[in-house]
Specification:
Elements: H1 2-14, E1 22-24, E2 33-34, E3 39-43, E4 48-54, E5 62-63, H2 67-75, E6 78-81, H3 87-101, H4 115-128, H5 132-135, H6 140-150, E7 154-156, H7 163-174, E8 179-181, H8 185-193, H9 201-212, H10 220-228, H11 232-242, H12 245-266, E9 272-278, H13 288-294, E10 298-300
Parallel strand pairs: 1-7, 2-5, 4-9, 6-8, 6-9
Antiparallel strand pairs: 3-4, 3-10
Amino acid sequence: MRKQFRYWLFRLALLFMTVAPAFADDAKPEKTIHATPAMWVVHGPRGIAYLLGSVHALPKNVEWQTPAIKAAIKRANSFVFELPMGNEDRAKGALVFGANVLLPVSVSLPSYFDAEMRRQFRAAVQHTGVDPEDLVVLRPWYAARELEDAMSGKINAHAAEGVDNIVYGMAEKRGVHDIRAFETPEFQVRAIKGSATTKNELDLLRAAMKLAASKPIVPAQKMLDAWAAGDPAALNSIMAASQSPEERKAILDDRNRNWLPKIEKMLNERRTFFITVGAAHLAGPNSVPNLLRQDGYRVEGPDTSADDVVFRGAATD
């Protein structure tokens, strides 16, 4: 089981899911879905950047390569992703993730539980349908994340079908050598951990189990449908319903702002960039396209500035 989970962790290390449903691999094939995901074009002083929102794992029946996306990929001579995409980089990333999210082989998550946590754990697993064997090898803080993600339900998705992996494969096939990344695995682990520390891990897990045992599940299919329809406003609303303001800030907003100067520096190069990041980074008032517009860049594509959403856990009157 450990070997199987480490393989799953390796897939996770390829790209952290900002749109992160729980995935099931046993659904029957369905008819082809023709998606038209949103794409933006940013005009800089010397360079041009295409921005494409990714779902990092997709069902096999989704066709998202529209003529416009294919043309942009063909024009690009530089490709940018959230994390380094080379095989050696991915292997190193898997080790970083493993060191931070897996418990020692001799330790099991339930060994930390008191009687109340055992009851909460059983209730959370029953409500979400998560395989408990996938949780018992995890550190408490990451098990909490997994339960939170499980509140998005299940879809039949595969990392190999993820937009990032497909785009990277297309760039490799063309022989493009200028392939860049915004973050290191170490940085992304820190973003995922957020407020988690060794002292508060169990408290975070208790809170996550309580929610996972009773909170209504937001269908992952809704997020996939919003992305497929090229509707960043709908995607933002759905994400807001499943995130607290603190989670949004750490996982999306802060990282978007960290990427901004890197993108602006690229736009001063005489190159055509194709930037592929999680779709949630391109939706909402603090999205990458909106931040670039605020800095005076001409950005062609959907408006992402709408902020009339209520975040989970936000105070309401």
